[in-house]
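Bit of a strange request maybe. I'm writing a small parser for structure token strings and I need a real example to test against, not something I typed by hand. Could someone generate the tokens for this chain?
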Amino acid sequence: MVVYYVLALTLYMPVSCREALHCLLEGIKWLLGPEWAVKVAGKSGISQARTRLGWEPLEQLHDEVVAPVAVKETKGARYGGWRLVSLDGSTRDVADTHQDEEAFGRRAASRGARATGADLLWRVKKNLRLPCEKRLPDGSYLSTIYPSNRD
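Reply from user aminoacidic:
Good idea to test on real output. This should exercise your parser:
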């Protein structure tokens, strides 16, 4: 149930943790029938349950579920020899802890996304002018994006 609760937190981000749990339990009550009583735990109970759960079941769920949807033959899934990947840009504020820094490290700077060897292709506004500065062998070209028209 706590795994479902953690997933519900992502669906109900604007509301309190307790309200997200209430929404989840109302859904469970609907599934099980009106004879089931639903009592929402307090903040302490919720926190203790999440601590008991730990991160391992969520990692296991991620590893079993998250995979590319498209295969090589899927139309629009590739550009040239590259597989297209979309990231939704969601962010989550979390506590800045020493344990997190040990587990995940810190970026050296806010730039340098290509340091891993990945090639990046960015979606931009349709009215952005992108003059061809250099034509590449695959038919694409290089252009420079500036912060404003003045630049």
